[in-house]
Design a protein that fits this description.
The protein has an 8-stranded mixed sheet. With 512 residues, the chain is an alpha/beta fold. 33% of the residues lie in helices and 21% in strands. The two termini are 53 Å apart. The N terminus is likely disordered. Helix 3 runs parallel beside helix 13.
Length: 512
């Protein structure tokens, strides 16, 4: 290796002689060097470490900047507020050769809510029920005039055809929200609804809702945490019972499905992997009236029998107060809990209530037969935030995914037709004929109750007769129907693989 040592000495000698050569001035980068000069590196380091912008640099964000009105030669702009069932179905169906599309939402994905309860106990993974907006409408990622903004709408100026927005930030160390404005030619409000608390004290502070992926993540973390804490030596019997008491408030489809998934998780997984506490964990479902009130009476009785058989305790009562470790019913009964899930229906959000638009019964945004807001031009409302005005003579539709999806599909076709007829730009569709109004036809209801059993009610309404099924066949229909309704083939594959993995190996109970 003598030749190698000689080569090293030669390289060092050349380096020393080069550094003393007057051909390269101190503080100037060599034209052959890939690195900046020491003086420039120090200047850049000082700039980034101080956090102060250089004098010649423009500000990072222009206050109240945004997207101005569309110019001649540009495509008309459709602004969609929300990324729920209605908004995403609309985005999927819009003709992006006619319109530029802008979506504004505090989340960048759509949640397949019928399968959300399965993620709480590890039957499905969270990614399996979330579909990115960019996959639903690829133009948002490709087209120069189409965008997705992670933001929430804070105001609407219908006269100027613009919405005020604010970036959605969370956590204690995030940036200050940035405000901006977006001009629109057509505006679609699909902001959904919020969980109803009925003004009961303590619900927001102590209960967990089941409407978003992060809700399911929180439920799963808390459930597994309580299971592990209850197994620690020294925990009293009463505290162990409290930690492992899961209370669900609300006997609608979401509450019943979560109770069924949870009871199945307890019987199949907890009894095997947490043998020391298996006799302490139990589920209580509290409902003021009958569970699954929209289903056939025979199906309701079947669900009650099966849930009770699975270990779910059904309690009829009204919650009066919610505290950190217990809830108090209207008759004075105190119910201690370790996990409290709130599923008592939905209502309009404070922002929807604040909009100076006509309201339908229940506080929703009022729309006509074509889903237009009649008092303003070029504004439509779909999904759970909207309802027919009393003047239309139509009843308020239920807050269901199939209603929202059908409205989104209808409005996408309507806007595409308006665009082809020359009414896509602002204030150009005043006197146009919109064609057939929106008509909703109920396709039926489904709900799983755990242990390979489900309910299928295919009646169009409670008063009409129709096919209703319960048991294993209904469970198979439930899974098959929802597997075909998952938005993308990617997520269908994920869901099928998750179901197969759970069936063979059991649920994943790791707390991540």
């Amino acid at each position: 290796m003598a030749w190698f040592r000689s080569l090293i000495r030669f390289s060092v000698t050349k380096s020393s002689s080069s550094s003393s050569s007057p051909s390269i001035r101190p503080g100037t980068a060599s034209p052959f060097s890939p690195f900046p000069s020491p003086s420039l590196s120090w200047l850049a380091a000082a700039h980034f470490s101080s956090g102060q912008p250089l004098a010649h640099e423009p500000p990072a964000v222009v206050p109240h900047a945004g997207l101005g009105p569309t110019k001649p030669g540009e495509k008309p702009r459709v602004v969609v507020l929300g990324s729920g069932w209605a908004g995403c179905r609309l985005l999927k169906g819009l003709d992006t050769k006619t319109y530029d599309v802008v979506c504004v939402s505090p989340r960048n994905h759509m949640v397949f809510t019928p399968l959300l309860a399965s993620t709480c106990v590890g039957t499905l993974e969270f990614r399996s029920v979330a579909e990115p907006i960019g996959r639903i409408q690829p133009a948002i990622s490709r087209e120069p005039g189409s965008y997705f903004f992670l933001a929430k709408c804070t105001g609407l100026d219908a006269d100027k055809h613009e919405v005020q927005c604010e970036t959605a930030t969370d956590g204690p160390d995030t940036l200050e929200p940035w405000k901006f404005k977006i001009s629109y030619d057509k505006l679609v409000i699909g902001l959904g609804a919020e969980a109803s608390t009925f003004g009961i004290k303590g619900v927001l502070e102590h209960a967990i809702f089941l409407r978003e992926v992060y809700h399911a993540q929180e439920i799963r973390r808390k459930l597994l945490l309580n299971l592990m804490l209850s197994d620690v030596p020294g925990v009293s019997e009463s505290e162990k019972s409290r930690l492992l008491h899961c209370v669900v408030v609300g006997g609608g489809p979401t509450g019943v499905e979560f109770s069924g998934e949870l009871s199945d998780f307890i019987m199949r997984d907890v009894h095997q992997r947490y043998a020391h506490v298996k006799n302490y964990i139990h589920v209580t479902l509290i409902e003021a009236n009958e569970i699954l009130s929209s289903f056939d009476d025979r199906l309701r009785h079947y669900a009650t029998k099966q849930l009770t058989k699975s270990g779910v305790r059904l309690v009829r009562g009204v919650v009066k107060d919610v505290e950190a470790r217990k809830i108090i019913l209207d008759d004075g009964t105190e119910v201690p809990y370790g996990l409290l899930v709130w599923s008592t229906g939905v209502g309009p959000s404070p922002f929807v209530k604040s909009l100076e638009l006509p309201k339908a019964p229940g506080g929703r945004i009022g729309v006509d037969e074509w889903l237009r807001v009649p008092s303003v031009e070029d504004v439509f409302a779909i999904g759970d935030c909207s309802g027919f005005l009393e003047s239309t003579g139509k009843p308020t539709l239920p807050a269901l995914a199939q209603v929202a999806e059908r409205q989104g599909k209808y409005l996408a076709g309507l806007l595409n037709r308006i665009g082809k007829d020359g009414g896509a730009f602002a204030n150009t569709a005043k006197d146009m004929a919109f064609g057939d109004p929106f008509v909703y036809k109920h396709l039926g209801s489904m709900a799983t109750i755990g242990r390979y059993k489900a309910l299928v009610d295919l009646r169009q309404s409670k008063e009409e007769k129709g096919l209703s099924l319960a048991g294993f066949l209904s469970w198979f229909i439930w899974r098959s129907a929802y597997l075909t309704r998952v938005i993308s083939w990617r997520n269908r594959f994920y869901v099928a693989i998750n179901w197969l993995t759970t069936f063979v190996f059991g649920r994943d109970i790791s707390r991540i």
